[in-house]
Amino acid sequence: MSKMLIAYFSASGETARLAKTLAGVTGGDLFEIKPQTAYTAAELNWNDSSSRSTLEMKGDKSRPAMAGPADVAQYDVVFVGFPIWWYVEPRIIDTFLESADFAGKTIVPFATSGGSGLGKAPERMASLPPGATVLPGKLLNGSPSETALRTWVENL
Predict the structure, then answer these.
(1) Cβ neighbours of 100 (radius 10 Å)
(2) What is the model's pTM?
(3) Which residues, 6+ apart, have CB-to-CB distance to 98 below 8 Å?
(4) Spatial distance between the Cα atoms of 100 and 74, rounded to a whole number of angstroms
(5) 98-133: per-residue pLDDT in tens?
(6) What angle is formed at CA 33 by the lines to CA 28 and CA 36, rounded to 5 degrees?
(7) End-to-end alpha carbon distance in the chain
(8) Contacts 24+ apart (CB under 8 A), 47-53
(9) Are 27 and 19 in contact (CB under 8 A)?
(10) Neighbours of 132 (CB within 10 A)
(11) Are 109 and 37 in contact (CB under 8 A)?
């Protein structure tokens, strides 16, 4: 049996709720990926070309600082949850994937979105942690049932 970590970044609470349900289904541990400086509502305004989130997403090399390090050494499978921003993962997910040694681990992206799919997130994520296997992942909008989540995890 693989030891699992459910790591997630949540701006609105949707991804957090999903991550907690997924942890309950898998028996995995939870880790919240928090920015060192929390986002304000104004900084999350994607309609504002000068908002913090917009500027981060415009910079492919942008890596917002995390509030604390992640210890992934004991895990075989790391689920990584996030809201879709600009058709990919938020840059803080890139920070997370570059902050620890994921060699030999399986990374499973899962995302929430107001209207877009996973886009290029899994593809981008696969290029970040050397030696890790990044699966295609899944968009999990709404409130998937525990049964639906269990079925997804069992079929990975």
Answers:
(1) 17
(2) 0.94
(3) 63, 128, 129
(4) 12
(5) 999 999 999 999 999 988 888 899 999 999 999 999
(6) 155
(7) 14
(8) 53/85, 53/90
(9) no
(10) 18
(11) no
